[in-house]
C-alpha cells in the first residue's frame, strides 16, 4: 500500500490512523509519501508508482467515484501484459439522480447501477481508469507532472501508449460505473482543462430528452 499525501493539513492525523490500522491488522507493507504544492492527480499517481521498489506489478488507476465488480478485475488482468498491451475500459457514467428519479422514488445507490439510456452514458472521453504494468508506465515516462488541477494528464498518457508499440485495449466494460457527483470547474484551470471540465459537467447531468423536458417545464413555469 502506497499513500501519497499532499500538503500539511491533517497529515499527522492521517499518518496516525494509518499506523494504528496497520498495527491492529499486522500489516507493515506500506509507504506514506508526502508532497508539497497543490494537489495533482497525475503527480500523485506517478510518485506512488515510481517509488515502488519491488518486482514489476500490475497497476489499476481508479478514482473514488468508481464502482467495479470482480468480473472487471479479471478483465483487468487479462487485458494487460508487460511490454505488450494496456487496458483502457470505458466506464458507464450515471446521470444526476435528482433528474433521473425526479418523479419517482429514488433507489439506493447500489440499485441505481443500471445501464439504460435514461440512467447514464458510456464515458468515451474518459481515460483515467486503466490497467497497466509499472514497467510500461515507466517506459513511456508516465504522467506529465507539470499538469496541475483537473484533467489532462490521463489523456496525455493514453496518447503516449497509442504512439508506442504497445497495444491499447479500449472497450466498454459492463462491470464499471461512475457515480454522479456535482462538479466544480475552477476558472483558474488552463483553457483546455476548463473546456474539458465544462464538457464533462454538461454531459453528466442528464440525457438530451431529460434536459429537454426540464427546459420545457421551465419555459411553461412548471419547474419543480
Describe, in plain words, how this protein is organized in 3D.
- The strands form 3 sheets. This protein has a 4-stranded mixed β-sheet with strand order 4-8-5-6. A two-stranded parallel sheet has the order 1-2. A two-stranded antiparallel sheet has the order 3-7.
- It is globular.
- It is of the alpha/beta class and 224 residues long.
- The protein has 8 helices and 8 strands.
Topology record:
Blueprint: E1 2-6, H1 11-24, E2 31-35, H2 41-50, E3 58-61, E4 66-68, H3 70-78, E5 85-94, H4 97-100, E6 120-122, E7 130-133, H5 134-139, H6 153-163, E8 167-178, H7 191-205, H8 208-219
Parallel strand pairs: 1-2, 5-8
Antiparallel strand pairs: 3-7, 4-8, 5-6
Fill in the keyword field for this structure:
globular, 224 residues, 8 strands, two-stranded parallel ribbon, single chain, alpha/beta
Low-confidence runs: none
Q: Rough shape?
A: globular
| Portion in strands | 15-25%
The major β-sheet equals: 4 strands, mixed
> Structural class from helices and strands?
alpha/beta
Instruction: State the distance separating the first and last CA atoms.
Output: 47 Å
Radius of gyration from the CA trace? Answer: 20 Å
Number of strands: 8
Mean pLDDT: 89
Summarize the structure.
The chain contains 8 helices and 8 strands.
